[in-house]
Amino acid sequence: MNSNTTPRVARRMASPAVAPPGVPLPADDMHSSAFRYYTPPPKPLASSDRKRSKDAPPAALATDTVFRNIVTMTASHSGIGLSVTASMLAWTLAGRGLNCALVDADFVGGCLDLLLGVERESGLRFSQIDAPLGRIEGAALNHELLVWEDVRILPYDPWNARQPEWWEVQAAIRALAEANDVVIVDAGQGGLIETVPDLRRGVQVVAAELSVMGLARTKSHRSRLASWGCDAPTIVGIEPRGAPRGRGGVGIAEAEDYLIATVLGPIRPNVGLCGDVLEGLGIRSVVKGSRKAVTMLADEVEQAIRPPRTSSRPSEEW
User: Fold this and answer.
1) CATH classification for the domain delimited by 67-305, as one of 3.40.50.970, 3.40.50.620, 3.50.50.60, 3.40.50.300
2) Alpha-carbon distance 266 to 146, whole Å?
3) What pLDDT digit, counting tens, does each position of 285-314 carry?
């Protein structure tokens, strides 16, 4: 099912041995190599270096169009597995025959292409997005994106030190919503939601760490979303990583009692998945321990983005 033509193991790049300045490299070490698991992505196009206006174009302020296929995923704090959950959700929806796009809108801790092991693949990054009129053509944007497991990916590249303007983010999300069945937006801790109207109007999914502290943070995060006018979110529980066996965790039933809401899950940490990500191999499967929870979340999302049925039968007059 993997759409990448480059074998995953080939992403390990050999870097030559380096001698101290002024010291020649021994002849027998001339061809020695060491594995390097990270390579910077292709250099951005020249368009990313253009001088941009700080004023939002009038077209970006028009919010009369509502896209019901945008899924905004957030968490109360970083490092709990939100990006992995978003990626597995996108993969699952794509496996059901939906055209799916995954957007990295976490401009604090992004690098989604690095997480998925496709950082060396050619394709558009957020630093290359330029929407001076507040609009991007959806099919053209789709064509330029990375593809991972039949999912189109728009990652953020923080090493280019350029954060997109809010109207560029909105233009990209709207373009992808026009061209795909569903757009999954990894919005991190939700810093953009207050600014980008389409993220507020989207289907809300909140990842909650299943710990006492994690649930307290989730309750506060849910209140913040409500103050921004977001709908009530679907909550998915993620077990804390590194917790001692039998300690520190909170069950789904206890989480539901505390949050007074349905909590899907749990998403369970996986040592093999963690090792793959650290070695640059990316997510190679929806791990067995989390498959049920991801399937339930995909069911919720698919039901939420499905357009409401309208009766085609004329009403009978009596």
Assistant:
1) 3.40.50.300
2) 30
3) 998 889 999 999 999 999 999 866 554 444
